[in-house]
Every structure is written in structure tokens, then in C-alpha cells.
Amino acid sequence: MDQIPRTIMHSALRSAPRSYLRIPAQVARRHISSGTARPVQSHTANTHRPTLRNPSSYRRNGPFIGRRSLFIATENTPNADALKFKPHTRVLPENFSSPFLEYMSPRATLAPPHPSPLAAQLLSVDGVSSVFYGADYITVTKDSGTNWAHIKPEVFSLITEAVTTGKEIVNTVKVKAGEEDGQGGTQSDTLAQNESDSEVVQMIKELLDTRIRPAIQEDGGDIDFRGFTDGWVMLKLRGACRTCDSSTVTLRNGIESMLMHYIEEVKGVQQVMDQEEQIAMEEFARFEEKLKQQKGSQAVASTGGKGTLDSAEA
Prior knowledge:
By secondary structure, this protein is of the alpha+beta class.
């Protein structure tokens, strides 16, 4: 096989990016430890080969140590009030019993069994309403009246600092007698198979775990199975999906349609709300009814502009 002419090879090396001419850090360290680092070679008219400089010339005030870069990806979700942050490292501890944790209040970030200093810092940011941890991502939800441009830089900075320090994002504390679960009973995976489950419940869990959960996690949330009663599947959406305007569509057109198609015993899907969420919904319904009476039946909620509930006078 003919060899490549030296002039062509030299020309290619001169035009190649510098990154292609660098040797791996492991090889450089190996030469250093063995004392075989080559001295700096000057380029002459007769030699154009890339040279390896003595790594000692790169030293500042310490040994030659390679640096590891940190990259945190930010992803939008179907919920305009929620952002998903992926630090490319585990967020929940290894072998954690639950696939997620959700912090709805500053008190929850300090309460056992899983307090989180990072969640406490994030919830202290003005406008942040909840923090959700998946296995390898963090979803931060804000209130609808706050602009992301005002809080995103601080949120990003707090997450970056927590990851770079290497400290545990989630701690584990033993729950004392009489204490409540500060994270809302997320001590185990509700979609995990149980020997006491009926055949129908096992099929429901399998479909939810393999077909539904991956898509919801991709959107920065998760799903909580709360039971199967009289043909109705009781579910609770978590994370970004919990406050998403399209959560009802997700339940009806997505989850409900699939479960009813594959399992004939399923009659429908019902979303379960916590007590605080139920109270908030009832208060909003009363407020909405009051505005309708004041402004008239032409008022429409959450659309903005003249003649809507958002512009009605209290």
C-alpha cells in the first residue's frame, strides 16, 4: 500500500484543529510519573510534526491535574410554569426506595425522612412554589405571576453550586414517633408490583410503569398510583404535570384511553388531590363564581383582557 506523501501529511497537521493534536490526559500523566516527558521541540523548515510540551510548563501553583467540566441542561416542559434541570448526575441517592421526591413548602424541606438543603434554598427564592426531584433531574415550579427571567439565573446558580460541591442533595433522617411524613408519603414506588395485588391491578401498574411513566418523566413529572375502586383508577400527577393546564387532557386522552383499551375492567381514571390542593380548588371556584356574578356571564377565567375574570373589579 502506498504511503501518504509527507508534504500532504504535514499540510493536514498544520491545518488540523489543536484539539486533534493533544494527547489524552492519562497518557500525559503516565509520562510525567515515569519521567519520560519530551522536551519542547522547535519547528524548523525540516520538521513539522506536532510536539508534546513538557507538562511542567503548564503548572501554576500545584501539580498537573486535569479539570472536569460541569454542564447542566435546562429543558422546557408542557407546563409554562415549570422548568426541568438535568445536572447529568444522580439527584436521588442510590437504591432510593421511591422514584421521586416532591417539596411543596419550606417546612417539607426540613422535615424527616428526607430533608433537602438544596430544596430549602430553591423554595426561598421569591416566586418558586415547589421543587421536584427525579432520579437524575430537578423540576422547579414557579407561581404564574413570576417571570422566569427574574428567578431562573438564581435557581440555576443554586443547583450548580450544590452539584459542584459534591454534597448530598437529599438526606435521610429517621422519623420519630408521632411525626408526619414531610414529603407526602413518597416512601416507596406505588407502581411496584405487590404480591397482594389482584391481576387487574398488576396489569394497570405494568402499563403505567412501562408505557405512561417514561413520557411523564420526560416532561419533568411522575405518576402516583392511589388505588383501583369500582373500575376507577385513582392517580395523582406529580412535578411539572401536577399544575399543568393540560393535565386533564393527559389523564383523559392519554392514560385513560390506554388503560381502557387494554384492560376491559377499567371504566375511567380519576385524579386524586391532596387536602391542601382540594381546599385551594374550592376557594378558587368560589372566587370565580363571585366574579361571574359581579361581571356577568360573559366573563371568562384566565384569558386576560377586557371582559374577563382577570380584569373584573373585586
